[in-house]
Design goal:
The radius of gyration is 17 Å and the shape is globular. The chain is an alpha+beta fold and about 55 residues long. A three-stranded antiparallel β-sheet has the order 1-2-3, with no helix packed on it. It has one domain: Complement Module, domain 1 (Ribbon), CATH 2.10.70.
Length: about 55
């Protein structure tokens, strides 16, 4: 039983953390492709981040 619990803990991964400064270093807009869909991640003048489809 303990082995099954250990496998569950191993299969759960930590989220990938990306710094917004690295994303927006070159441009204020980042395009994200998810399957056949495209999303736009945009940095506003007020330093807010907006994700649109």
């Amino acid at each position: 039983m303990l082995q099954a619990q250990e496998k569950q803990k191993i299969s759960v991964s930590k989220p990938l953390v990306l710094d917004s400064k690295a994303l927006f270093k070159v441009a204020k807009t980042v395009l994200i492709r998810h399957g056949s869909e495209h999303y736009t991640l945009r940095l506003t003048k007020n330093d807010k981040v907006i994700l649109t489809k």
